[in-house]
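Q: Got a minute? One more chain.
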Amino acid sequence: MTISPGSPEEPVPAAEPPADDVAPAEDEAAPAAEAGPAAPSALTTDIVAGQGGVMTDEVGVVTGDLTLRTEVDGFDVTVRVQYKDADEWYTVTGAKAPVQDPRDADAIHAVAVGILNRPEG
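A: Always. Here it is, folded:
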């Protein structure tokens, strides 16, 4: 009795993969994974401080027409405020924190504006 290749009694050797399916050599760099959309470096909104104003680390309470800015530096977010059209920026007390995703700055800015913008007092 003769057993032909491919019969159940004899294993068939694996075929060589086509050249297109060959993994790249270790010294060939794979393209870097695309990062998600980058967070903006700063978001700004004009606000009017409510009763009691906005507490800052540098000068205490600021009141009136202000500009609120949420800054992103890597994985750190800081909310700052300035008198509208002034040069100096002040850090809002308690509004500096690390984040896991810099894109969270959009939500942080929206919450800060919602809390601090009180044009009716």
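A: The chain has a mean pLDDT of 80.
Q: Perfect, thanks.
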